[in-house]
Amino acid sequence: MGHIHWYPGHIAKAERALKEKLNLVDIILEVLDARIPKSSSYGDTEKLFRGKPRIVLLNKCDLSDDALNLKWKKKIEEKEGAVCLLTSNGSHKDTNLIINKILEVSKPITEKMTAKGLLPRPIRVMVAGMPNVGKSSTINRLIKKAKTKTGAKAGVTRQQQWVRVHEKIELLDTPGIIPMAQPDQETALKLACVNSIGENAYDNEHVARELLRLLSELSGGRYRKNVCEYYNLGPLESVEPSEMGSLEADCCEITIENIALKRNWLVKEGMPDVTRCAQFILSNFRDGKIGKITLDEYEC
Ligand SMILES: Nc1nc2c(ncn2[C@@H]2O[C@H](COP(=O)(O)OP(=O)(O)O)[C@@H](O)[C@H]2O)c(=O)[nH]1
Ligand SMILES: [Mg+2]
């Protein structure tokens, strides 16, 4: 009941589709969910992309922890040797940043073409990533920006696979989908928390309970305050302060039941409406209402 079921689907087929696209491009824009930089990453990305130049976008950074965003960005740049940008849906500034980075990263490729006596052609780029990380939003923003700048020209854009997003850059208008291999339960749980796996693979109550556990434990209890404040949970009344551990002493007991009781959501006298509250907590987290939170613990 508690487990998150995994339906691997057609992983091999998805990998083949990704490889076909990979043959067409010079540079990969790899989109990760900044709330789970590790859990939304393929692992051996270098091998998957056959060492092609990569720009990593830590997307949805409007929802993730600012301090950890910078640490993860630094780590990706240092350990993986890839350029990394923090991006979010709403920001037009990001689109310029992405374009400029593509131009920067593509310089050696263009120079190589010139050295071979070839006429430099536009750099070809593909957006890639796991489901729900923001691939389509990223593609749409890049295309929209190009259109508003150059004016939509009939027959040039939408129907084709390639969209000119800059005089020197062509973007594949469908993303490369990186299949999720069977993750361990902790990774699957985090993917469920950020809504990246289908709802019928898990039980809301289980995921909400585990989310609250994570929020209580992560980074030495860094997010406990967010949860207690957002749900207006006071210190526990039923337990003497002396009975509580030192971590709990300054805070409340974070459970679905306590949150439901606080809101007076009951199924009957004194019985908290756990089902309704679990859904509520998951929505709140996904909408960033509890705070800017990163679920992958930062490791050096
Ligand atoms: N808050 C926030 N939501 C985003 C961001 N990027 C995408 N989303 C939302 O995340 C969901 C998945 O985005 P989509 O681009 O369809 O992801 P894809 O499956 O990778 O193509 C949509 O509801 C988007 O509106 C972002 O930077 N911030
Ligand atoms: Mg999409």
Please give a structural write-up.
Helix 7 (204-221) crosses helix 11 (274-286) and helix 10 (256-263) packs across helix 11 (274-286). The chain is elongated, with a radius of gyration of 22 Å. Mean pLDDT is 87; it is low at 151-159 and 244-249. It contains eleven helices and nine strands. It has helices spanning 11-22, 45-48, 66-80, 92-115, 135-150, 185-193, 204-221, 224-230, 246-249, 256-263, 274-286; strands at residues 27-33, 54-59, 83-86, 123-129, 162-166, 169-172, 176-177, 266-268, 271-272. With 300 residues, it is an alpha/beta fold. Strand 5 (162-166) and strand 6 form a beta hairpin. The strands form two sheets. Strands 1, 2, 3, 4, 5, 6 and 7 form a seven-stranded mixed β-sheet that branches. Helices cover 43% and strands 13% of the residues. The protein has two domains: 11-177, P-loop containing nucleotide triphosphate hydrolases (Rossmann fold); 203-286, Conserved Hypothetical Protein Ylqf, Chain: A, domain 2 (Orthogonal Bundle). Bound molecules: guanosine-5'-diphosphate and magnesium ion.
List the helices and strands and how they pair.
Blueprint: H1 11-22, E1 27-33, H2 45-48, E2 54-59, H3 66-80, E3 83-86, H4 92-115, E4 123-129, H5 135-150, E5 162-166, E6 169-172, E7 176-177, H6 185-193, H7 204-221, H8 224-230, H9 246-249, H10 256-263, E8 266-268, E9 271-272, H11 274-286
Parallel strand pairs: 1-2, 1-4, 2-3, 4-6, 4-7
Antiparallel strand pairs: 5-6, 8-9
Helix pairs in contact: 6-7, 7-11, 10-11
